[in-house]
Amino acid sequence: MLKKMQIALIAVIFALLVCIPVGLLISNSIGKDSEVTEDSSTIFESVSNLEALNLGLIDGDELRKENGIDPASESGTDKEKEIENVPVSISLRSIQDDIKIKISEAGTDKLISKVNFTVTVKSKNDTKTYNDTDMDGIIYIPYVEAGDYTVFLSDITVDYKSYHADKSQTITVSDSIEYTKVDIKDEIKDESQINVAEEDTKVQEVDQTTDISAATEKDNSNAEAEVQESYDEDISEEAEDILAQIEAEDAANQASKAAYSGASSGTIEAPTITSDPQYVEAHSGVKGIDVSKHNGAIDWNAVKSADINFAIIRCGYRGSSSGALVIDPMYYTNMAGAQSAGINTGVYFFTQAVNEAEAVEEASMVLELISGYNLQMPIYLDVEASHGRGDEISGEERTAACHAFLATIRNAGYTAGIYSNKKWFEEGRINTGSFTDYKIWLAQYVDIPTYTATRYDMWQYTSKGTIPGIGGYVDMNVLK
C-alpha cells in the first residue's frame, strides 16, 4: 500500500514538472500575440492620422498636443512662422504748440499702418504716453507747452512682426509760428484710402443773396412741401394762407427780375440785359473756368478752342471728418491736359483747417503737389461750408488759419488768393478786410455782382456754364 502511494506522488510531481513549463510557454505566446495586435493597431492609427493630416482634415498642432509633443520644441520644423524684426524710425515735427510723431520703416520712410504703437513723451516736468489709436503711423499731440521733448517708442509684436526703434528723438516746441513749408508728402492720401462720402463734403448751398432764381425754386419747393403737410393734417385756412404767400413771393420775384432786366409791357420789345453798361462792365475781362474731379474727363483742346484762357484746378482738400489731406483724383490729369493745350493754370485747395498749424500743413501739401509745374495763375484757398470740422470754428480762428495758409504760399514765392461766396465774405465767417493784400475771388451767381465789402480780382458768376470739351455744367469766371 505504501508503495502505491509513493508511485502516485511521484506521478503528480512529474505532471507538475511538465505542465508548469508548458503553461508558461503558452502564456508568453499569448502575450506576444497581444503585443503584436496592439502595435498593429497603433501603426494603423498613425497611418490614418497621417493621411488625415495630409488631407487637411485634422489640425497638426492639435495632433502634436494629443501625442505630448510641444511644437515649439521641434527642431527643423517650418510649421511655425518666425518673428520678423522690423527696424523702425521715428521723426518729429512741430509747427506751433504741437508735436506730430511719424512712425515709419527705417530706410524707406513709409508710414507703418495697422499697428497701435505706443510712445512715451518726456519733458522737463512731465512724462506721458500716447497711442496711435487710428493706426495710421501718425500720432498728433496738440496744445503742447513750449519746451524740449524726448520721444521713445515702445517695442511691439504684431502678426509675427517685431517693431523696434533703436533711437529716441528730441524736439523743441515753440509757441510762435513760422509760415514755411513742412514735410507733408508722406501724409498725402488718395481717395482709395478714405471714405469719400464722409470727407469730400463741400456744401453747394443756395445763396439767396447771389442766385435769385435758385433761391426762389428752393423756397417754393419748401413752401409746397409745407402746404402738402398742411393738407395731410387738415385742409384749412392755414394752407390757403401758405398758398397765397407762395403766389405773392413768386409774383414779387418775377416783377423784380422783369424790372431789373429792363422789360416793359405791351408790344414794345424790352432791351436785353447784355446791353446794360453795368452788365458789360461786370463781364469784361479774361474768361476762365475752375474744375475738379466732379467735372469728369475733359477735352482740354476743345476747351482751349472755346476761348477759355485759364483754368483753376483743384489739387486737393482736407477731409471734413478725419482731417486727412487728400489729393483730387483728377489733379494730375487736369494739370497735364490744360498745360498741354496752352491754357494758363492755377490751383485751389478746399480747406478744413481748424488752426494755423493745420493751415500750414495744407499749404505745404499744395506746394508739394505743384512742384515741377509752371503756374501762370495764383494759388487759391477755398473757404466755404462743409458741414464738417471746418464749420465749427469761430470767424477769428478761421481768419487766422486762412492767413497762415496764404502767408506760407506767399513765402514760397507764389501769388496767393482766397475764394468764397458773397455771404461768407460779408457775414463775418472771415474778416475779409484783412485779406486785401491777397487776391480775392468772389462767387456770386447774378448778372451783375452786388458785393461791395472789398474789391474783388476775379468773379465766379455761374456754376452752370456749358462749354465744349466738358460734359455737364462747369463754373465760369471772369478775371478783372
Describe this structure in words.
By secondary structure, this protein is of the alpha/beta class. It has 4 domains: 72 residues; 93 residues, Immunoglobulins (Immunoglobulin-like, Sandwich); 49 residues; 204 residues, Glycosidases (TIM Barrel). Helix content is 35%, strand content 22%. The strands form 3 sheets. Strands 11-12-14-15-16-17-18-19 form an 8-stranded mixed β-barrel. A hairpin with a 5-residue loop joins strand 1 and strand 2. The longest helix has 53 residues.
* Cα end-to-end separation: 156 Å
CATH topology of the largest domain: TIM Barrel
Q: Class of the largest domain in CATH?
A: Alpha Beta
The dominant shape is elongated
In sequence order, what are the helices and strands, one letter per element?
HHEEEEEEEEEEHHHHEHEEHEHEHEHEEE
Based on CA atoms alone, the radius of gyration comes out at 41 Å
CATH architecture of the largest domain: Alpha-Beta Barrel
What is the CATH superfamily label of the largest domain? Glycosidases
Q: How many separate domains make up the residues?
A: 4
DSSP E strands, number? 19
Helix content range: 25-40%
Q: Spans of 5+ residues with little confidence (pLDDT < 50)? A: 29-47, 71-78, 212-246, 248-271
| Number of discrete helical segments | 11
Q: Numbering strands along the chain, what is their spatial order in the largest sheet?
A: 11-12-14-15-16-17-18-19
Main pleated-sheet profile: 8 strands, mixed, barrel
**Structural class by helix and strand composition:** alpha/beta
Strand content: 15-25%
Rounded average pLDDT = 81
